[in-house]
Amino acid sequence: MSETQDSLVGKLTTDRSQLDWRPYVYLLPAFVMVAIFLAYPLVDTFLLSFQEVVTLGGETRWVGLDNYVAVVTDPLFWVAAKNTLIFSVGMIVLPLVLGLGLAMAINRGIEGRSFLRSLIFVPVVVPIVVAGIVFSWLLSPNGLVNWLLTTAGVIEEPARFLNSTTLSLPSVMLMVLWKRTGYYMVILLAGLQGLPDDVYEAAKIMGKSRWAMFRHITLPLLKPAILITLVLGIIDTVRAFAHVYVMTGGGPSNSSEILSTHFYQVAFGYFNFGKGAAYGFILFGMALVFSTIAIKLSGGTEI
Amino acid sequence: MSVTDVFATDQDGFPWEQIVRYVAVSLAALFVLVPLYWMVATSLKDPSQIGIFPPTLVPSPATVEPYFEAWETGPWGQWFLNTMLISGGSTIVTLAIATPAAYALARFDFPGSNPIYLLFLGLLMIPAQILLIPLYNLLSTLGLVDTRLGLILVYSTFFLAFSIFLLHSFMTNLPESLEEAARIGGIPEWKIFFQVILPLVKSGLTATGMLIFVFTWNEFLFALTFLKSEQLYTISVGLQSFQGIHGATVYNQLFAMSTLATLPVIILFALFSEQFIEGIAGLEMQ
């Protein structure tokens, strides 16, 4: 309807030709920006992923799929991939579960709802480098966490969280949990507020248990919001860098190395630009594949 | 799943549900606040209270000396200024480019509008760090490596798609007849955009601007890679380098500067928390 109306008004007011040039003019700056700083580098890096830099001057030669083979035959790639999978529990699963619980806790029947929402969201705006530094100190051998644990008698000797091959990655995940829970909570809370009250009233009258209401009403209706947090979580897991870089640098002995820190090491530590480019596209592919799987598994979305 | 649902029983009259609710929220609040408290508390301790075990929970004596001592160790003033200029610049450039683009996508029916919208959506999926290498090369060619302008242009591009979506959601909600009325009234095209549309989406511009400012203020990877000379560091890169050089010996100073680095974004958030949160939630709900 609006289309015909628009064109009708257009014809009535001016005699301009069929094609309306105005939206293209408004979009032009964005196009130019994206073309120069996104599309061109993207194509460039794609081409670079099939080349090898042979001289310091930047001369290259074509090597086919060699760079991709080099990435996937690098044992560290698989260590990093496994660590990234574990890391994603801290980036996605734990903050999602915690965020959902908190969203439901403050959605109804609590004083100061909007203040609590803001308070729990605060870590999201704290610079990631600051968060990493603060948690490094909290988890240091003479830090607050060790003091609490030894005082409570949970452990006898202070643990060296960040220097332990088993504890370094969980330590980073604790910081990530702190940083992300509020983010997911806010998205899920917005989803909860969209749920109609009368559905719950009806279920209550029918004598449904709380678990049944959660399972059959809340979860299905929240599906779009949960899906969004999943996709965001997957993209951010692939992007996460400073989280690990600041706290552990990927160590000790690569125990907390994730794909993006390993990628950075390959590209800028060893200046292996060709392999780095191939690595980048493998990361991109992973983000796409896992996001698609997440969308498919949840049966798509109508949002 | 949720503890609330398992334990809550309305029948016996005892407010289990309320208790679980408040306990859960209190624990969450504690989890949020302890690291922040520890940062500020440590920044107010003198060296005798650093690195001792058990740690002193409340600084005594409390002193602001670490702030002054840390300030002398590097060009912190310059780093704050750099971060301010880069974040401010990125916010202005992004808004200037994203607003008209969002206007076109939200208010016009034109061939290609859907594919263009999807294209921008796809841009959000690119893990930005994979462009580090070609962007580095590109900026070298343009002479923009190790400049604030180079970083501003890169940030503006990366936050463009995000900003277009957010602004788009504010603009689609405006009444349909708005521009038609203005056009019939003979108001020129550019005036419609600047004087009719922009004032109506002021809150959207604020929310988007705040988010871009905070995201760029906190960004680390690109600042680390593209800014080579110490004089141009952002505050995050400066903090990380300070930590690398001084390690665990002067945590009070490190946290003094960390507190200063966090203060601007916390203040911004405190002032605009509603727009902020609704911006994030609204964007994701689209």
UniProtKB/TrEMBL annotation, chain B:
<feature type="transmembrane region" description="Helical">
    <location>
        <begin position="79"/>
        <end position="105"/>
    </location>
</feature>
<dbReference type="InterPro" id="IPR035906">
    <property type="entry name" value="MetI-like_sf"/>
</dbReference>
<feature type="transmembrane region" description="Helical">
    <location>
        <begin position="254"/>
        <end position="272"/>
    </location>
</feature>
<feature type="transmembrane region" description="Helical">
    <location>
        <begin position="117"/>
        <end position="139"/>
    </location>
</feature>
<keyword id="KW-1133">Transmembrane helix</keyword>
<keyword id="KW-0472">Membrane</keyword>
<keyword id="KW-1003">Cell membrane</keyword>
<feature type="domain" description="ABC transmembrane type-1">
    <location>
        <begin position="80"/>
        <end position="272"/>
    </location>
</feature>
<protein>
    <submittedName>
        <fullName>Sugar ABC transporter permease</fullName>
    </submittedName>
</protein>
<feature type="transmembrane region" description="Helical">
    <location>
        <begin position="192"/>
        <end position="217"/>
    </location>
</feature>
<feature type="transmembrane region" description="Helical">
    <location>
        <begin position="19"/>
        <end position="38"/>
    </location>
</feature>
<dbReference type="Pfam" id="PF00528">
    <property type="entry name" value="BPD_transp_1"/>
</dbReference>
<dbReference type="GO" id="GO:0055085">
    <property type="term" value="P:transmembrane transport"/>
</dbReference>
<dbReference type="GO" id="GO:0005886">
    <property type="term" value="C:plasma membrane"/>
</dbReference>
<dbReference type="InterPro" id="IPR000515">
    <property type="entry name" value="MetI-like"/>
</dbReference>
<keyword id="KW-0812">Transmembrane</keyword>
<feature type="transmembrane region" description="Helical">
    <location>
        <begin position="151"/>
        <end position="171"/>
    </location>
</feature>
<comment type="similarity">
    <text>Belongs to the binding-protein-dependent transport system permease family.</text>
</comment>
<keyword id="KW-0813">Transport</keyword>
